[in-house]
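Good morning N.,

You mentioned wanting to compare the apo and holo forms, so I went ahead and generated the holo version with zinc ion. This is what I fed in:
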Amino acid sequence: MSLRQLHLLGSPVLRQRAHEVAGVDEGVRALIADLYETMRAAKGVGLASNQIGVARRVAVVSVENEGEFPLINPVIVERDGKQVGEEGCLSIPDIYADVERAERLVVETLDESGARKRIEAAGYLARAIQHEIDHLDGILFLDRIGPLKRRRLLADWKKSRRGADGHLKDVVPEGASRL
Ligand code: ZN
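and this is what came out, ligand included:
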């Protein structure tokens, strides 16, 4: 397992449609382990492979008391209802906006053993799944808000990145900042 650097807004891989994996092998399981480790250290509730520079359709989701699982070649097969709630993204630190999502969904995915699995989710867990699957399609939450709000947030983002170099961010290992 290793902690990976996060790719930030501006990194081309975030705009790429990630490729399906042919099967769940040791490489995919190692990728999942890295996603979990990096997500936990960055205190996220989900992380997609694109965000660590890998264009494969693999992501992880972890919502306290609701569910923690990898998504491997995930496909949303049912969705209904609407919810609006605040989202942020580890690839766009400190930027938040209300985003409309489906309230409930059913997603088909593979699990870590390569078996097919159906996951039903609602509320915040459903929101996290939709956010991560968007990443695998090269879509960011800022694409799902109104143009005026987006323009304002992008201006905030550019201001916050002034003087920053490149599109990569180191993640501090879990516990490392504690004395
Ligand atoms: Zn994100």
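The mean pLDDT is 95.

Happy to go through it together on a call whenever suits you.

Best,
F.
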